[in-house]
């Protein structure tokens, strides 16, 4: 395919993409396929000779679409949102064409510099303390990670490296392995599975702190565990607070936890993967209070801020903490400016070496929406969640299982877990809408997350009618 | 921006991308900017109100392009290639539109299934042993990682988890920390910096095995270190072999190393990040001999197989090894089919949770080029490297520093390191072509890597004329 054909096929693809997104609600949100469906639809081996583009293109509808879960359908209410916007897609086209690998400043200065400035823009939108901004001479700064899982892992590893150096400075005789064997990290018992997984990867002990009746970690709960652990000779070094947990969008009490972590010299990382986007609205910004105590902070614009995956924004107060943890300097990656202190080589900030020009997506989206447009988008989703909450509350058969703060509603039929499992199964089997469950205090709960950019009040109303209807059917079948 | 405007702007962007790539050689390959150039060109904060697309678009040339290192210019010979092709860009547009997050089968069955089948296609193209293919009931299988760094880390962590379980099965009293403190992993002293970094991340001892005069690890060198380490009570558990090292594209002697690793129950991972693409050609496939001894294998189609970044292909012989290392099953990620044994939940195979629909790129590229087209592409680049090698060899002032096997030529002026450093500085300062150096056996060496899809013989000739001219100037300045 040469540039001339790309001009033609690219324009066709632009129309296909626009058609797909404009008509997405006509597609069944969750596919009917069984495991292994795809293998029999295509050849067992790659073709020897080139095929025509027509043949490839027509297979999108034949092979791919029947097996797609349509995350951008207004009938998709599962997991959390993943962003999708036209400006982000345009920026990604440009990113693909430039196709630079921005591991160092020299590998493509624009790639590094736009990222640093975009993370400052975003940090200012969130009203992050100045410590976290790169500015022109700050000690902090931001970076785009692929996912929140990677951000948590990076923070954990940086904290591990820092505490080891700190202890060895006082006790040069203690080996790294010995120190690591004594370390202990903490998170909420509601934290995302990726936090526990980060502990596994880093070979580190990770404990879950029990939450209160709002699914929030409180200061006294952490303090209690710290005292117990210090008494047995363990070394607490890391706490991952969650703002907006995955099960119920609960918020750890960072204003209580932060001062404890600071006093005890424990690295506090804040994971606000989903909720973070909302903090650009003044009315939700108080949810981030206590950020001033954190060493690192992360959220995913690729969830709820209209920047397509992957774009997970992370800031650190002291970038030397993160860089120092993994710095490697082979000759083939050296460049003239790196010792000047003026440049950022983002390869030291992340697990992979290579990285795409992802900040273009932020730049396009923020400029095309403006801060006001982004705030309006967040508020609309929160409004839709509140609307759904009202519908649930108005129905005596149901209960709300957790405070509705942002775009997630946790609800269930009053009754057994089995009853709710059956209801969810019927909802998903009907294929009209798609939801996933969670467990809260031993209860099986349905999660209704407002996800798609195109979700409107009518979709929420329709979803509720459908759920309510399936619930009626189910309840009628039960013996009284 | 609504769908109607996206149709218009998307088509303009397709033309911009085509124009950029068609005319890329007219742009200066390496930018003139100084660190910090970009910040002053754009506002300090995101706009409150939405801007027009025209304003954003015109800033591409004003703000971004002056700071881009043009990796796809035919005058770019630095690092290793990164792929860029029209079919891959079309597939990425589709990937962005579908915008699913394929962490589990249910999250978008097509995303998981196409990936499994594409990795089988690619495995067959490389003539990998059947053990590595997923087939319909195999124990092995492939996965797309973001980068080779992540693949190495995943392999290392899977090996760590496996050895710990194995030792604890015989000695239930030994703690994980105690076992880990005795473990030792190995790689070539020519291995990529990411291998050493993986050891740092996993908190694992990592040793470098000395290479022979071809920069290759041989069996006896590994055997010697293993004996020494076992004698001091260490537990060897992982060896990362490199096929196509970053400094000089050297090949570890896997046919000698593999049997040793198998006999000693050491996990052998093969990192062929750059060279792997060439193994689709029968004449280069012997370089992969010994793969049958490996537990895991990885290379980057996003380097040299025309699939845009990121697409790092990894295979394991026994997928339970990799899945078992990190499996986490929160309720919100469970789905009906996951216990059936028929589905793959790729989140267990990787560091991040989220993942894009990257296999679309492979599918489009392999079908639009065909195996023959891809082989021709590899052969063309190898031919251009050989052409450059001949030019260097014909000039008595220069020497070739390592065997030219694929698309990389390592060369230098006969003389001091300082002389060569000066030559490289002048080459890069002239901005006509872009190269990076490496160090081989204490010598400062220039690397000429054939990178761009559009590089032709005339560009290589021109590059050589330029280098030769700058060398003449430099040598004339020297006192005799």
Automatic annotation (TrEMBL), chains A, B:
Cited InterPro entries: Aromatic_deC, PyrdxlP-dep_de-COase, PyrdxlP-dep_Trfase, PyrdxlP-dep_Trfase_major, PyrdxlP-dep_Trfase_small, Pyridoxal-P_BS
N6-(pyridoxal phosphate)lysine found at: 303
A GO term, aspect molecular function: aromatic-L-amino-acid decarboxylase activity
Coiled coil: none
Any GO CC annotation of this UniProt entry: cytoplasm
Cofactor: pyridoxal 5'-phosphate
Pathway(s) of this molecule: Catecholamine biosynthesis; dopamine biosynthesis; dopamine from L-tyrosine: step 2/2
Keywords carried by this UniProt record: Catecholamine biosynthesis, Decarboxylase, Lyase, Pyridoxal phosphate
Single Gene Ontology BP annotation: amino acid metabolic process
Assembly, per entry: Homodimer.
Similarity comment text for this entry: Belongs to the group II decarboxylase family.
Name assigned to this protein: Aromatic-L-amino-acid decarboxylase
Higher taxonomy: Eukaryota, Metazoa, Chordata, Craniata, Vertebrata
